[in-house]
Amino acid sequence: MKNKITITFVFTLLVVCGLLALYYLPPVNFNGSPLRKVDLLSDLRPDPVIEEVSDTDSIPLPVVAKPIFVDTCKAGMTCIEDYADSLELGMGAFYEALENRASLNRPVRIAYFGDSFIEGDILTADLRTLFQQKFGGRGVGYMPVTSRIAGFRPTVKHTFSGWESHAITDSVAFHRSMQDISNHYFIPRQGASVSLKGGKNYTSCLDTCDISSFYFFSSDSVKLSVQVNGGEDTEYIFPGDSTGMQVAQVEGRIGNVSWNVLQAGKNTRCFAATMDSKEGVILDNFSTRGSSGQQLTSIPLSILKAYNRLRTYDLIVLQYGLNVASENVSNYSYYTHEMEKVVRHLKEAFPEAAILIIGIGDRENKTETGELRTMPGVKNLIRYQQALAANTHVAFWNMFEAMGGEGSMVEMVNSKPAMANYDYTHINFRGGKHLAKILFEALMYDKEQYEKRKAYEN
Predict the structure, then answer these.
(1) pLDDT tens digits, one per residue of 5-47
(2) Residue 445, CA distances (Å) to 77, 79, 422 in order
(3) I want to staple 121 with a disulfide (CB 3.0 to 4.6 A). Which of 125, 276, 361, 415 is the partner?
């Protein structure tokens, strides 16, 4: 019988040497994430020094010009920084609208643009609720005719049939000149319909509304019908108009509404149905998965100006960054250069609206040792977003800081119950409620400080 001790020793030695050699392999990525490095001696090595991403390539942040009445941010709050110059009202335009809402003869409106972070009405649902509970208002607002995530959104029951749907995320056959404010357009087939039913489980402010609108464009005559609360159909006939967008409306105590296209020409394209109130606050969610925000410049100025005329906004929120932040990029001047065009485009279309840029929140990735840390580049991107706000004279809110800074996404994932998903990038509805409360408190504090400065200056 052979002595196997020598063979076993040699085999073990080879395995150990092989595992030790794996440490020197270059980093390996799977689906964009680094695989954990094999290191038999990890317990013997000193803790790695994590290098901070250098800010040497960052745009130096400008000094904020302080007003005569200087206020300080109270402890524990991340305040809104308003970079409006002396020729602009800045966030004051929104606060003035809230204060004088009774005389507006329309609701105060917020257009909240973002990426998948707010998809399905996450965060915006609770921010809408907080505004409507304090300042009045009902309804979920603007709903594109169709949606790929209709079943995921709890704030409204959304059904539709008979539509040819087009979105800016389509790889082919999307005509940018035909899109609406949400980067969509929809071509009706015979008998096309869209129905909205107020959500009763999320908040009492959404179960009914006062007015429903249907937005469309057609150079040919259009025949529509609307059914409210399952009652009789009411028909509308609109002559063709090749110069601009048109809107049909129905009023009443509306719990559910169904819009139907009975007759339309080949040039007809439809945009959205709404559930709105006549007063108070309306917040429209405009989320685009995978977006960096740059697609907003592709919306024709004439279309945006039509919305300013038919659906005036008092505050425009831009929340992007998830699809911009990178592990290997520290200089984001290319991005802010394009986003400056977006801000100028929106300012030209909505000259009376306040604009608020919300910085990217915390986003985690795994190091080669398998540990979670804030993605390199996130904090640099925030500096560029803040500089973007300063350069374009709009407001900025640092969501990363408000969340708790570095590692805060891990804390949200590990909280009981969890407030974020295991991709360590996206929040869930509980996380949305948490952040909406923080943002709302920051807005109300900023409104209070604006009113103090105004009284001081007067």
Answers:
(1) 777 777 787 777 776 666 566 555 555 555 555 555 555 544 4
(2) 9, 8, 33
(3) 125
